[in-house]
Amino acid sequence: MDIFDLLEKHDFGSVHVGRDVASGMLCFVAIHDTRLGPAIGGCRFLPYPNERDALIDALRLARGMTYKAALAGLPHGGGKAVLMRPNKLFDRAALFRAFGRFIDGLSCQYFTAEDSGTGVEDMEILRGVTKQVVGTGGGSGDPSPFTALGVRRGIEACVALQLGRHSLEGLHVAVQGVGHVGYHLCKELFAQGAVLSVADVDPLKTERAQREFKAAIVPNDAIFGVECDVLAPCALGSALNDASIPRLRARIVAGAANNQLAEPRHGDDLHSRGILYAPDYAINAGGLINVAMELQGYDAEKARLKTLKVYDTIMEIAERSKSSFTPTYRVADLMVEEKLGQVAPSLEAR
Ligand code: NAD
């Protein structure tokens, strides 16, 4: 499959390839859509087996960012940058400076941020050579509490619609993964009176949740089978698959992890079983909402108020799903396509 087939398959957009021989920098910047505004999305810095795999990662992730930003009502499109980590000695600062100069030349079409393999220090280096970066040390800070706040609001919407309850008091939530977001989610839920079960591959993290939030610790391989009201996947992608779905005892699945459905058909499966699934990119947008606020002059309170609206988004998706007998993941995609269809075609799409 050549690059044109890849672009067609991922319905793109534009892709920019940057190379700097002196520092060993090689990057792919995928800009999926700019109809709602300049693209925003993190930069990954990982070892890839080859350039093709790196490009595919950028294409796949950029599309997801378009959908997340559009549904969150942000004036942004979706983009993602993938930097190939050199397999020999390299000067990290020089490499990131070269990347910064490259995105600075993209006519303000793309803002980058942290992602897998990059951190605040890298964003500071980028800030030295370009304004096309968010998530620096003096900016919006850790996105996880905002992501968790949005997930808690999304759970509240699901609980209201699916269980007819308007409080989380006594609600049993099973959380898979109590890392950055999972921990803050437990904190949010515990404060609202929810009862928690948690699992994590790291026992220190589950012990902390037990200590601070009276959570019951469940073995990793048992968390999907816990008899509970809500299952919140907050660990890895593809958590909802052929093996896990038949074991579910919850009537709601609503968590922070990206790409929770192993394949789209698993969204159909959940729907046919009467399990309400909160689409991942709709419920986990709080972190993006927070970081995007930097571009308007960062205001934590405004970011918080906008994140609270995840409730309305999830409620609308769930209501439309119910009335149209359509799986929620499909309703969310349709809502994004409606939003994008209402604006003029972007430069890339022309
Ligand atoms: P994290 O790495 O801090 O936490 C993930 C946790 O899952 C870790 O504690 C890890 O030990 C645990 N884990 C890994 N494999 C597991 C397994 N098989 N069973 C149980 N636990 C397991 O990451 P995070 O920042 O909390 O993000 C969690 C998920 O949410 C990821 O999918 C991420 O892409 C997504 N997400 C995060 C944010 C954010 O603001 N951090 C925003 C949007 C989406």
> How much of the polypeptide forms β-strand, as a percent range?
5-15%
Number of helices: 13
> What structural class should be given to the helix and strand makeup?
alpha/beta
How many domain modules?
Answer: 2
- Amino- and carboxy-terminal Cα gap: 24 Å
What are the segments in which pLDDT stays under 50 over at least 5 consecutive residues?
Answer: 346-350
Helix content: 40-55%
CATH architectural arrangement of the largest domain? 3-Layer(aba) Sandwich
CATH class annotation of the largest domain: Alpha Beta
How would you spell out the order of helices and strands? HEEEEHEHEHHEHEHEEEHEHHHHH
- CATH superfamily annotation of the largest domain: NAD(P)-binding Rossmann-like Domain
Largest sheet: 6 strands, mixed
The counted number of beta strands is: 12
Small-molecule binders: nicotinamide-adenine-dinucleotide
Instruction: Please state the average pLDDT score.
Output: 94
Morphology: globular
**CATH structural fold name of the largest domain:** Rossmann fold
Provide a descriptive summary of the structure in words:
It is a single chain. The chain has 350 residues and is α/β, with parallel strands linked by helices. It folds into 2 domains: 125 residues, Leucine Dehydrogenase, chain A, domain 1 (Rossmann fold, 3-Layer(aba) Sandwich); 187 residues, 3-Layer(aba) Sandwich (Rossmann fold), CATH 3.40.50. The chain is 43% helix and 15% strand. α3 crosses α4, α5 crosses α10 and α5 runs parallel beside α11. The C terminus is likely disordered. Bound molecules: nicotinamide-adenine-dinucleotide. The site of nicotinamide-adenine-dinucleotide (NAD) has 25 residues, from α5 and α6.
